[in-house]
Model the fold of this input.
Amino acid sequence: MHLQTVNEMNHKTAILLYEIASYVMILGATVVYFLLKTNNMRLSLTMVLLAVAIAMRWMMERHRFRAANEEIDQLQSDLRRLTQLLAEEKKKNNNN
Done:
């Protein structure tokens, strides 16, 4: 398997895991808020779970950003290679 494909799969997997984890944390915060009776503990635990959900979303966006940058770098590399091949082909045609 090509290295780029493996990196894409790793990024996609990580993004999916962070997204699912954030939804689970939001769901957990909702459940904690409605099930716990004591106000102090309920609000504290809810806020902690929401903070973790926000961190998961942040990590998800960070992975998306990294994946996009890697794709941009790969496309720029491909463009340079193709430009070089075109220049070589033009030079070859001009010599003939």
Remarks:
- The longest helix spans residues 39-95.
